[in-house]
Amino acid sequence: MSKEQTNGNEIIYASEVSSTGDPYEGGGFLSKSKGGLTKREYFASLAMQGLLANSYGNDHEQQLLDFSEEVIAHLAVNHADSLIKALNDIP
To answer: What is the pLDDT of residues 4-17, one digit of tens each?
Structure first.
């Protein structure tokens, strides 16, 4: 039995919503939509949240807030890519 690979471009929390009638009379939603974040986007957003929440470092490290938003974004994406690679490397 082989392990399923993690695809970073796969949509998570995808939704398809359709109308089930008049919302004012107990019906459902008015429109139909598909969408969601990819796993890579989701993992990157979590990494960025963690980076920013712990951005002050200590006396021996440069504070993360000294970096530009672009650098922080690239760090978060690199963390997401590393997580996806690590998940796929596990037997």
So the answer is: 788 888 887 655 55
Output the CA angle 64-7-53, nearest 5 degrees.
20
> Nearest 10 degrees: CA dihedral of 15, 20, 26, 28?
20
Domain limits, the chain: 37-89
Instruction: Report CA-CA distances (Å) from 36 to 20, 46, 67, 73, 90.
Output: 22, 15, 29, 19, 26
Residues 6+ away with beta carbon under 8 Å from 5: 88
Residue whose tokens read 């990157």: 44
3-state secondary structure 2-29: CCCCCCCCCECCCCCCCCCCCHHHCCCC
